[in-house]
Amino acid sequence: MLESTKIHTPSQMSRVFDIAKDTVLFLLLSCYYILESLFWTLMPNAIRPMKNLKGDVVVVTGAGGGVGRHLSIKLARLGAKVVAWDINKEALKETCSALTDEGYEVASYIVDLADRNSVYSTAEKVKKEVGKVDMLINNAGTVFGETLLELCDAAIETTYKVNILSHYWTVKAFLPEMIKTGKGHIVTVGSVAGLLGTYRCTDYSATKFATVGFHESLFTELRAHGHNTIYATLVCPYYINTGMFDGVTPRLMPMLEPDYVAETMIDSIRKNEVNCVMPGSVRYLLPLKCLLPAKMCWDLMHRVMKGPQSMMDLKKKQNVA
């Protein structure tokens, strides 16, 4: 009888006490965090302290058009030194012209993000020619708009190389110096399609889901190693009216305009926010996919939101040979 009785050794009791102590401390801090979040949420941007970007070197990938171009212009207006990356030479020229016409200097580089060596070599050029990078905005992305069986293998590989693998190469290139100086910001542009699987986007959605995991894991590593002055922000916007999703006809809410997305991103960055979902209302719908029965979720998506139907007329991009 006594032999079967569990004896709580001091080490076991100590572990139980530590868990209880940490749980109580967590609950107390949670009250503070919630109140702090409500306070900053209700405070207008006009009177809220915002990060000063003047003189900061900011690399923007996919700067040749869409949100990337708007980001470049708005960052320059805030005093940042913009380093524009894009694979499209003509589009990059247009972005540079828009900046120089307003009197801003810009450094531009033609980069194929699908080529790891190109990313690393260009990053070295930036560090030598411009200086230490203070902020990296991984904004570039691509989509082909085909169902899984229509996608060629090369298109799938390209989507992964541009939409997620390039994030590894750019962050590995610039993060060490950020850590060395104790100043930096990594901005990962994901998508609502990275929070909710989307029709005709098995490649795109999967890579955007990957950006969420990449951001969350990177954030954890930075905090676990005490790099609290290196910030990480994840941006997940709804469909953006940039041409990438030409032909899509959303039912419940219109596409976002690139100017609005860029403005909201910069506000989020200047607040050092960890997550930014656009529009904000979407974040309240996302938990439903885990809480509701699967059949109910599908009916909500198919019957009410018309998600698959809205993607039926998406203009396909040319498959990679």
Radius of gyration: 22 Å
State the helicity in percent bands.
40-55%
Helical/strand content category: alpha/beta
| H/I helix tally | 11
User: What is the makeup of the main sheet?
Assistant: 7 strands, parallel
The secondary-structure element order is HEHEHEHEHEHEHEHHHH
Strand percentage lies at 5-15%
Q: Any low-confidence stretches, pLDDT <50, length ≥5?
A: 1-5
Q: What is the 3D form?
A: globular
How many DSSP-defined strands? 7
Trace the largest sheet across and list its strands. Answer: 3-2-1-4-5-6-7
Query: Kindly state the mean pLDDT as a whole number?
Result: 90
Distance between the termini: 75 Å
What are the main properties of this structure?
321 residues; alpha/beta; seven-stranded parallel β-sheet; globular; disordered N terminus; SDR_fam; all-trans-retinol dehydrogenase (NADP+) activity; NADP
Describe the 3D structure:
- Keywords: Lipid metabolism, Membrane, NADP, Oxidoreductase, Transmembrane, Transmembrane helix.
- The chain crosses the membrane at residues 23-43.
- It comes from Papilio xuthus (Asian swallowtail butterfly).
- Catalyzes the reduction of all-trans-retinal to all-trans-retinol in the presence of NADPH.
- It is a single chain.
- Strand 4, helix 5 and strand 5 form a beta-alpha-beta unit.
- This protein has 11 helices and 7 strands.
- A 7-stranded parallel sheet has the order 3-2-1-4-5-6-7, sandwiched between helices.
- It is 50% helix and 12% strand.
- With 321 residues, the chain is an alpha/beta fold.
- The model is unreliable at 1-5 (pLDDT under 50).
- The radius of gyration is 22 Å and the shape is globular.
- Helix 2 crosses helix 7 (258-270) and helix 4 (116-129) runs parallel beside helix 5 (153-181).
- The termini are far apart.
